[in-house]
Design a protein that fits this description.
Chain lengths: 640, 587
């Protein structure tokens, strides 16, 4: 199967499933649930098949060379979509996205199965659920920023209705809050996308770089490559060829394409570079999704009010999109801003961890507690991604932090989905979630309670379970960056242990259940045991054998950390060169300007106004030496 | 030139222009036929619907024929290759934008006639009056989109407005309808008077009402005054403001929007569709024409080459086209002439900078006000039609933002300015389907005996699932959610705003931020309507409202919804069309 068919099939299979469900008879809800489950199983089977390691590349599967996963983007395809606005239908997978794709299809499958108790408007539920899955998979696979944005937004509407129609008592409030928060983030992201788009120029890239970004087919060589590159980029009539290609944006960003000021002669933040602006706007958009303090307030509401399977999706997959956006887009495309704002990002991460943990401790509602634990756990992700602790070419610590963050996303995806499912199981029986009225469940539901303890321990970060690996890697990596943050983040583990153990004690231990609906409690059925058991099995598997995940993920993540720290080393040199070049051009243009024609300012010789408005002036024109000394000084002061 | 020569020139010119005026003529003939059919007993029984449908369809075909005349491979090439020319002694301009908007208006006419037939308003008795008014108004709109002369601007606005006043009052036994009509007339008359006064001020200072001539004279005036403002600047600014009043009325821009909610509430949903789609499209096209007309000179007529602009400006303003200045004509060779023309055009364009920044400030400020006010006021509405009225006000705001961006860019980069104009046209084209769909849904639900309050729509999804889902899709598109058409329009306008803002106008970056915030604001009230239909339970005492998707109305709604979805996913083709259409203005 070629890449277009394969990846499109994975992404759009649920959407086609949803379309087919429209024509199902209304009278048979069980049939529709089964069909929807079948679709999610098919998608999972496809992604699982892609995960099977095999020697040859290009077969559609995730590629390994010599037993090590390929770090670069693979299985890519790049088709025209809206050529008149440089938008491409461009997808691919790599070590960062592929584990998340697997997680998505896995959690979707389980949560579809967890949807069995839903009996209200089953048809609409299944259709919206499948549309949601298409959106989620699309986000992780898109390599075109516009396409990414479209998928990012496509999820919102199904999610709104899934919470708003099938949710708890305050569902409408929760649904609109979720929608509003995310939409504000999306609008900021849209503005950042436009900023980046208008400052790109593919013509500044070399043919090799263009090929690496899949602007032209990767298999071309020699003459054919030259011809393709010329046709596609260099000989286009436009003065600048803009792009939404994420890989090209990455290369451009690391070449300083976004160093210009947003507003010439701007004061205060308006004088900040486009890269900084884009980074901050994108970061806000993404940490709303993560969510991080202070944008987390939608999460407890949405998670609590959503029906159980949707809470699983929210916690298991949706939150991961924020982290994915940060690692895939924020850092590689705006590295300078990422470097400058590292403390802010890490600080936000730590604040979320501490705040989330304390808030969780104060909750009386079982589900709200789990929701706040998500805020706390996702703080590790932000912290791990932000740790830019290396300058001297030693990328190991940052790579460790990023790997830890990525693993934390997978681990949290498993454990939090499990926790929400378990809360849902007991809620289905006793119809309340008040922690003070539980107790003694172990006696009535022994298997369920055993599974629950395992999964809650995974959430706690007990060694040997999936929560541990991510947390320990992140905490270790922070040590080199900031001892204070490392100490705080390590001690959050105590808080986590505090609220989780206390919860287990209040819910499962104790002599006897005295709360309402005691007579409705029955042991977990086979379906529930299978779902929870599968999640626990994976939690244990990833805990004792994290290589299972790292085998796919580690090369790409480490490569990105290496690239960015290498960029950090090269950057001062590049800036000096750039400044020299600009000065040279400036002096040339000054001598070439004819003082006789001052009226032509802003308009070029052919009567058309200049493509570039008042050619970007150097803000001040210091000598190259001055720049050189200032940048080297800066580098030295940056060294820890 | 003797009198007979002038007359015969005029006749030649008019006959020549007629060929490019065929679609409007077809509509004129249709109106006459409809009126004549009522005179005779034998023909009175013919339903005017068929005549109106045939007439508007023929008009649409004639527009398409105008594109197809040039043997081109794609429609975009065909539109782009239409050479800009003026007709009827430079009163109208015929270029690719004229053709595109005419096509849009004629397509609207066809769809609208079908829509009204399905929805049953007007009834058989009123049909002839109704369609005459609609088609007459559309002729006026065609004049608006091709105006090259401020008198035509005035004439077009009036010709489009007067039938609308009557259309609004069409529901005779409804007091609200009559009240709305009266309000509309008073507002329209007032603003028309102000606009006419503004035109006369501008004409007094600039010595003409022919827009290109005015622009050139304005440039010369500004050039002559150098850094200082010209003496007449107060009169110019006042004239510009007053002209804007008339346009703002047609656009229902704040603060000239007061008629809009009342009129929308009082008039039937069909008329609302007409006002919010066709009338708005024509007004937008007119705004961008006038705005660009006063900020960018694309081509100078042969007669107006002025060797020394300053001298010309101080002595007298350049003459009207038609009276040639023989000196410059005879003395220069062709190449010299074109070179001189080019450089003089360039320097005139630079001189227009003040005019551009005035228009950007004026239109931009109104745009932000309109957009924000429209969205905020929509929160408080309980009536669906009033809600949609405020929604249409807000959307006018977004579109005016694109005008500001285009005007700013016209002084920096024509290619980018063309793209900004294209973003406006794209938004308009998608808005066409969204609003026609919305009002069709409202009309069909009204026919199914459903009230027009928002709470009446509760639980609609249970009895009319297809219609409710289509409505939700359209509402989401109005918010600007991908992958729906509304998003594409908004995305392109935001792109134009950023492009303009990053090229020396932080003011437009601020506008971009306002646009973004407004998108988030607008979410709530659209979503509330969607929520009412899908999540809320239907009221106990309501009879089941069922408009099946297979009924003619349902099919029509689906046909309007499909483009909303389709244009959100495959918008390359229409994007090339609108780029081609915009080349008429910024060629």
């Amino acid at each position: 199967m070629d890449n277009v068919t394969l990846l499109s099939a994975v992404v759009f299979l649920p959407a086609f499933g949803a379309l087919a469900l429209v024509f199902f008879p209304k009278e048979n809800p069980q049939l529709m649930k089964r069909a929807a489950l079948l679709v999610t199983v098919l998608v999972f089977a496809l992604t699982a098949w892609m995960a099977i390691p095999d020697g040859e590349s290009g077969s559609g599967r995730f590629g390994f060379s010599g037993g090590v996963a390929i770090a670069e983007m693979q299985n890519t395809f790049n088709e025209e979509w809206i050529p008149s606005f440089d938008i491409e239908y461009y997808m691919g997978i790599d070590g960062i996205s592929f584990p998340l794709i697997l997680l998505t299809s896995f959690i979707s499958m389980l949560s579809m199965w967890a949807s069995w108790p839903i009996n209200k408007h089953v048809k609409a539920y299944c259709i919206l659920f499948l549309l949601l899955e298409t959106g989620m998979l699309g986000v992780f696979m898109s390599l075109d920023f516009f396409l990414f944005y479209v998928f990012w937004e496509v999820m919102l509407l199904p999610m709104y209705f899934l919470i708003g129609v099938w949710g708890g008592p305050r569902r409408e409030y929760a649904a609109i809050k979720f929608f509003l928060f995310t939409l504000v983030g999306s609008v900021l992201m849209l503005i950042a996308i436009l900023m980046l788009y208008f400052n790109t120029d593919l013509k500044t890239l070399s043919p090799d770089q263009l090929q690496a970004a899949h602007v032209v087919d990767a298999s071309l060589t020699g003459e054919a490559l030259t011809a393709a590159v010329n046709e596609r980029v260099y000989e286009r009539p436009q003065a600048e060829v803009h792009t939404f290609n994420l890989l090209a944006l990455r290369t451009l960003g690391q070449n300083g394409a976004f160093d210009d000021k947003l507003v010439e002669d701007g004061w205060w933040i308006f004088g900040a570079s486009i890269g900084h602006w884009a980074f901050v706007l994108l970061l806000i958009g993404f940490i709303i999704k993560v969510p991080s303090v202070p944008f987390h307030t939608w999460l407890p509401d949405a998670h609590v009010e959503a029906p159980t399977p949707i809470s699983m999706i929210l916690a298991g997959v949706l939150l991961k999109m924020g982290g994915y956006g940060i690692i895939r887009i924020c850092y590689p495309i705006c590295p300078q801003a990422g470097y400058d704002l590292a403390y802010w990002v890490c600080g936000l991460g730590v604040v979320s961890m501490v705040y989330g943990a304390f808030a969780a401790m104060a909750q009386k509602d079982f589900k709200r507690l789990v929701a706040y634990s998500s805020v706390s756990h996702m703080g590790y992700v932000l912290l791990g991604l932000g740790v830019w602790s290396t300058v001297q070419g030693n990328a190991e610590y940052w790579a460790m932090g990023m790997n830890g963050a990525m693993f934390q996303m997978i681990g949290h995806g498993i454990s939090s989905a499990g926790m929400f499912f378990l809360v849902g199981v007991i809620y289905d029986r006793v119809h309340h979630r008040n922690l003070d009225e539980f107790g003694g469940l172990f006696a009535k539901m022994p298997i369920y309670s055993g599974l629950a303890m395992g999964i809650f321990f995974a959430g706690l970060g007990l060694p040997g379970l999936c929560g541990f690996i991510g947390e320990v890697l992140v905490t270790l990596s922070v040590w080199r960056f900031s001892i204070v943050l490392a100490v705080i983040s390590a001690s959050v583990v105590i808080l986590t242990a505090g609220y989780i153990l206390w919860t287990i004690q209040r819910v499962y231990l104790g002599p006897e259940y005295k709360g309402p609906n005691a007579d409705k409690i029955r042991p977990a059925d086979a379906r529930e045991i299978t779902i929870a058991g599968t999640l626990l099995a994976f939690a244990i598997l990833f805990g004792v054998f994290p290589q299972l995940v790292f085998n796919y993920m580690e090369p790409t993540v480490t490569q990105q950390a290496k690239d960015l720290s290498q960029w950090r080393i090269d950057e001062p040199q590049r800036r000096i060169k750039e400044a020299r070049r600009k000065l040279k051009n400036l002096s040339k243009s000054v001598s070439a300007t004819n003082p006789q024609t001052p009226t032509n300012e802003g308009l070029s010789q052919d009567g058309r106004p200049d493509r570039k408005p008042a050619p970007r002036k150097l803000p001040e024109q210091p000598s190259p030496e001055a720049i050189a000394t200032s940048t080297t000084l800066k580098t030295e002061s940056d060294t820890p | 030139m003797s009198f007979t020569e002038i007359i015969s020139d005029l006749i030649d010119n008019t006959w020549g222009s007629m060929a490019l005026f065929e679609p409007e003529l077809a509509l004129c003939v249709t109106i006459v036929v409809m009126l004549l059919l009522r005179v005779f007993d034998g023909t009175r029984r013919i339903d005017s619907f068929w005549v109106a449908l045939a007439g508007s369809f023929v008009a649409l075909l004639l527009v398409i024929k105008g594109i197809g005349q040039i043997d081109q491979q794609t429609i975009a090439d065909g539109v782009e290759s239409i050479k800009a020319q003026t007709i009827f002694t430079e009163m109208l301009v015929y270029d690719s934008m004229t053709v595109f908007f005419r096509g849009l208006l004629m397509s609207f006419a066809v769809l609208f006639v079908i829509f009204t037939k399905i929805s049953g308003i007007p009834d058989r008795e009123d049909a002839a009056d109704f369609y005459c008014l609609v088609l007459g108004s559309i002729i006026g709109m065609c004049l608006m989109v091709s105006a090259n002369h401020l008198l035509i601007v005035f004439l077009g606005i009036e010709m489009a407005s007067v039938p609308s006043y009557v259309l609004v009052g069409m529901l005779r036994d409804n007091r609200k309808s009559s009240e709305a009509s009266l309000k509309y007339v008073i507002f329209g008359a007032g603003t028309a008077g102000v606009m006419l006064y503004g035109i006369s001020l501008l004409a007094g200072v600039l010595g003409s009402v022919h827009i290109p001539t005015m622009a050139r004279n304005l440039a010369i005036l500004l050039q002559a005054s150098g850094d200082a403002l010209p003496q007449a600047s107060v009169a110019l600014a006042l004239g510009g403001l007053m002209l804007m009043v008339g346009l703002a009325f047609k656009l229902s821009a704040v603060p000239f929007h007061f008629w809009c909610p009342d009129v929308f509430e009082g008039a039937s949903a069909e008329v609302n569709a007409f006002l919010s789609v066709a009338s708005k499209a024509a007004a937008m096209a007119l705004l961008i024409r006038v705005a660009i007309g006063f900020s960018y000179i694309s081509d100078l007529p042969q007669a107006t080459i002025v060797e020394d602009n300053k001298a010309a400006a101080t002595s007298s303003l350049a003459p009207e086209p038609g009276s040639t200045s023989p000196v410059s004509m005879s003395l220069m060779s062709v190449t010299e002439k074109s070179a001189a023309k080019d450089s003089s055009r360039r320097s005139l364009n630079i001189a227009l900078e003040d005019s551009r920044s005035f228009i950007v400030m004026l239109v931009g400020f109104l745009a932000m006000l309109t957009c924000t006010f429209g969205n905020l006021a929509a929160y408080a509405q309980t009536n669906v039609k009033r809600l949609m009225a405020y929604s249409s006000i807000a959307h006018a705001g977004y579109m005016m933002m694109a005008v500001a961006a285009a005007v700013h860019l016209s002084g920096v980069d024509t290619e980018a300015a063309r793209s900004a104009v294209a973003s406006l046209i794209l938004y308009m084209s998608i808005y066409f389907f969204m609003n026609l769909g919305t009002f069709a849904i409202i009309a069909f639900l009204r026919n199914a005996r459903l009230g027009e309050e928002i709470r009446d729509y509760a639980g609609l999804v249970y009895t009319s699932p297809g219609l409710a889902i289509c409505f939700v899709v359209i509402l989401m598109s109005l918010i600007g959610m991908p992958p729906l058409g509304g998003f594409v329009g908004k995305f392109r306008i935001f792109a134009a705003l950023y492009d303009a803002g990053s090229r020396g106008s932080p003011w437009l970056l601020f506008m971009l931020a306002v646009g973004g915030i407004n998108t988030a604001i607008s979410l709530y009230y659209y979503l509330r309507l969607a929520k009412t239909m899908t999540i809320d339970e239907p009221p106990e005492d309501r009879l089941p409202v069922a408009v099946p998707i297979t009924s003619p109305g349902g099919v029509f709604v689906v046909l309007m919804t499909l483009p909303v979805v389709g244009l959100g996913i495959w918008w390359d083709t229409i994007h090339t069309w609108v780029l081609a259409a915009a080349s008429g203005l910024m060629g």
